[in-house]
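Per reviewer request, we include the raw input and output of the structure prediction for the construct analysed in the revised manuscript.
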Amino acid sequence: MRIISSAVGMQKLARFWQRQGVRVGFVPTMGYLHAGHLSLVRAARKHVGKSGRVVVSIYVNPTQFGPAEDLASYPRDLKRDLQLCRAAGVDVVFTPGDAEMYLGKAEGNYSTYIIEEKLSQSMEGVTRPAHFRGVTTVVAKLFHLVLPAVAVFGQKDFQQAAIIRRMVADLNFPVKIIVAPTLREGDGLAMSSRNKYLDAEQRSQAVILFHALQAAKAAVARQSISAARLKSDLKEFFTAAPQARLDYVEFFDPETLEPVAEVKPGTQMALAVFVGKTRLIDNGRL
């Protein structure tokens, strides 16, 4: 397994592979890897085969964090991440720094961003206004450096995956986007690097996100229900977990991300919840 920190070095290797006809599967991450990330690695390997190459990037991207968010404290353990990647059969781990990805940003010389203007206007785009601008920009840059045939994202970040798909389609990136299922802990909590922030009591209450999804599925299975009523019911549902504070819950069309007035089977649900100071997200098809 190779470890590359230089943007120029990564692109040089990617162009070499491209000339050789080698397919590249790419998994972009911010590190502190867990089993969910490793499932994305397996999906990438499946799509490029033994003759292809799998690249994992580990980069905590500053442009997708707001000023009051957890950029400085975001969990990092590169040594452990590299061990996990090696065991998973990753071919290259790309570990750029800010100077590689945003050359001159500190001096005010970086000024180019990619902005998706429709799918990013709801949910995470409301709560974290500059978040998706940072995501689309860094992913586009990573695509240019890694030159993947296939890139794999997790379904837990449903809105993000939809926006990346739209960016790829709108800007004609020659990349196939794969969205892999969310991996969960035994009690249903979606795996996330931020779960590390939770103390024992918060961890026990965090599972309410999954329980809320299950409750909504059960309600819709009986009959269609108005989105307003179901939101109200779920707000009451969250009072059972005193350390959990609902940021938002939305019901929408899974293709267009447009909100729906009536919730029925096939509707997509997404929610964000603060458990203590930790913000967690989840989603599911009802």
